[in-house]
Every structure is written in C-alpha cells, then in structure tokens.
Amino acid sequence: MTTVFVICAVALVLAAAITSFRLVRGPNSLDRLVAVDMLVALSVCGLAVWTAFTRDTTLISAIVALTLLGFIGSIAITRYRVPDTTVEEEPT
Question: What parts of the sequence cross the membrane (predicted)?
C-alpha cells in the first residue's frame, strides 16, 4: 500500500512542476490564473493523500477550507479580471 502512496506523491509533484512551468511561462494572465488554481487543487490532493497515508482525519477541515478558498478566489479573479491587451502592428 505504501507503493500506491509513493506513486501518488510522485505524480502530484510532477504535476506541480509542470503547472509551475505554465505559471511562469504562461502567454497571458488567464493561463497564469488557471495555473494558480491548479496548484491549489494539487495542494488539496496532496493533503488528501497525506491524510489517507497517516490515517489522521485532523486535516479534513484544512482540506475543506483550502477548497473553498480556491473556489471563491477563482470566481473572484475571473469576475474582475481585466483582459490582456494585444499590440497589433500598424500597416506601413
């Protein structure tokens, strides 16, 4: 059973690394916002795997709080997001 938890942890770390790359290199702000939301979701998944591994349920309230914070933050950011401006070349 420990092998399953190690595989889950490696997959979560790999997903976080790929998401961090998208956060840094995102072509626009919407890609970066989705990457931040994905990192919050990966944190929730990591806490859930840790809770299952240790069989300690004290982190469930933190998981719920982080999930609600991520959801409300995503809604607020997408509601008040200013669109990116693109500079178009002028014809010569």
Answer: 33-53, 60-82
